Amino acid sequence: MVLAAAIVYGVARSRRDFVDFEVFRTAGVRALAAEPLYRAEDAHYQFKYWPAFAFAAIPFGFVHPEAGKVMWYALSVAFIAVLVRQSIRALPDRRATARALTWWTLLLTGKFIVIELVNGQTNAMLGALAVLAVVAIQAGRPVSAGVLVAAAVFIKPYALLLLPWLVVTQGVRASASAAAGLAVGLLLPVVQYGWQGNLDLLAGWYHTVVSTTSENLLVTENISFMTMWAKWIGAGSASSWLALLTSAVALIGPAAIWWMRRRVREPAYLEVSALLLLMPLLSPQGWDYVLLLATPAIVCLVDRFGASPPGWRVRAAIGFFLTSFMIFDLVGRTLYFALAAASGVTIGALMLLVCLVGLRRRAAA
Fold first, then answer.
1. 108 and which of 56, 223, 240, 324 could share a cystine (Cβ 3.0–4.6 Å)?
2. What is the spatial distance between Cα 336 and Cα 323, in angstroms, rounded to a whole number?
């Protein structure tokens, strides 16, 4: 495992060299100096996270950039380990051994893990916090779960998708702790920037996200519903409305899983898994490697694979192929670009979502 981590580190330095980490580190340096965080001149590498995340990155501004990369890499590996291990440990009524699930999960998420590490991204952190929130819920600690969900939102804003679920399923204590955590995070920049400066930062964040969506819409690695429809019928108002409709329909999946929760013993795991799986599809700038967030869903689907009906297994296998193995060097140029043009990864993720709904339906029967 150590050897594999060292190899990936070498690949990262020769390929992408932690380009996203450089964005975070730059934001941390700017936050320390009370400078604007959101700048159009940063082009493709604009900071797109909430201001509080820049404050979390401040410590990396105090060390040499090379030392910072090593530290960030080690932190990312640790969060990946937490994400995989806790996804397996928290799985209710586990059938397979932990070792078997670990190896299958690493195989099916390997593509996402490598890109995550090479870019120096934060999806493993978000996923780990979400799974730890599930662990807290299972242990009867709703306040801790609320704080963890709030922290996840500041790592990547699309973790906001977890908040309605938290409010509906976990009650007042979890909701209050999440609200308190969000308030602290939103107000933190006031210390450095003042009230108006903080408002300007939030406005700058919104403008940056909105203004950079169209330029990333047809990037091959974008797997959002908006990109799917733009590839199919062309970018425009029609594709935007169809993407919105598709998002609403896709959310029926987690809603159906939630609706049947009273008939199962530990409902939270599958519900959070479905929401994490959907995040890169709902976000207009959802890249394929963000499917690292689907780790809990993959763990669950692998664990139940052998005991599921044949039709379900076929759908799951196709979903796994389209999401995990659509790799240029593996499938070849022709098939890769054909599947990319057809939004194969997006379709594969939707098939996995359908399989999750099937799991809840059979468990609740």
1. 324
2. 12
